[in-house]
Design a protein that fits this description.
By secondary structure, the chain is mostly helical. The chain is 76% helix and 11% strand. It has a domain at 1-64. The protein has helices at residues 3-62, 64-78, 101-109; strands at 80-85, 90-95.
Length: 110
């Protein structure tokens, strides 16, 4: 072989080696990037689910039925009883823990 051919083969093999090394490095970076993208997708799915729950809660509170439902749950959980004063026609709320059992019984009978 001629010296010019040897120089040309050497240059081409070095160029091929450089592109091969650069390709391997880029492939490793791409794999790492795809792992990070998977984490971002998982996080965004969790955020989307939570956003859907928030929207459902807001929807419940913007409807009249949802408001009364929330009030009923709060009254049920806190044990609040309503007492009606027949003389003044006023309704007052009183905590069930503070009222006597006879008062709560008379209220429940009404």
């Amino acid at each position: 072989m001629n010296t010019a051919e040897w120089i040309l083969v050497a240059i081409l093999s070095i160029t091929l080696f450089v592109f091969l090394v650069i390709g391997i490095i880029l492939l490793i970076k791409l794999i790492g990037l795809s792992e990070e993208a998977k984490e971002v997708i998982k996080t965004s799915q969790k955020v989307a689910e939570k956003t859907g729950d928030v929207v459902d809660n807001v929807k419940d509170f913007t409807s009249v039925g949802g408001i009364f439902k929330a009030i009923a749950k709060r009254i049920e959980n806190n044990g609040i009883t309503l007492e009606i004063d027949n003389k003044s026609k006023k309704t007052t709320s009183k905590n069930a823990k503070e009222s006597s059992p006879k008062e709560a019984e008379t209220i429940s009978k009404k």
